Amino acid sequence: MKKNVLFHIMKIDMHKPFSDVDVKKLINLIDPQYVIYEFITRSLEELDEYITIQNKALKI
């Protein structure tokens, strides 16, 4: 059962960066104290790429 749940979650949230700049508006609306990046990557290079993509979308 746990395995099925994990696969279902991974289909919903692939732990990849968002690149749509409109997400910044949503985050500003919610106004969180922190924004945490949660990625699943195969290498440090891929992690760096994901962070760059998400930072660009957030204009950081």
Name some characteristics of this structure.
single chain; 60 residues; mainly alpha; 3 helices; 57% helix; globular
Major sheet, described briefly?
none
Q: What structural class is derived from the secondary structure elements?
A: mainly alpha
Give the percentage of residues in beta strands: under 5%
- Uncertain spans: none
Task: Estimate the mean pLDDT confidence.
Answer: 88
Q: Quote the distance from N terminus to C terminus.
A: 40 Å
Q: Output the number of helix runs.
A: 3
Rg of Cα set: 14 Å
* Chain oligomer state: single chain
Binned, the helix content reads 55-70%
Describe the structure.
With 60 residues, the chain is mostly helical. It has one domain (14-58). The chain contains three helices and no strands. The model has no long low-confidence stretch (mean pLDDT 88).
Short description:
Helix content is 57%, strand content 0%.
Topology diagram in text:
Elements: H1 2-12, H2 23-30, H3 44-58
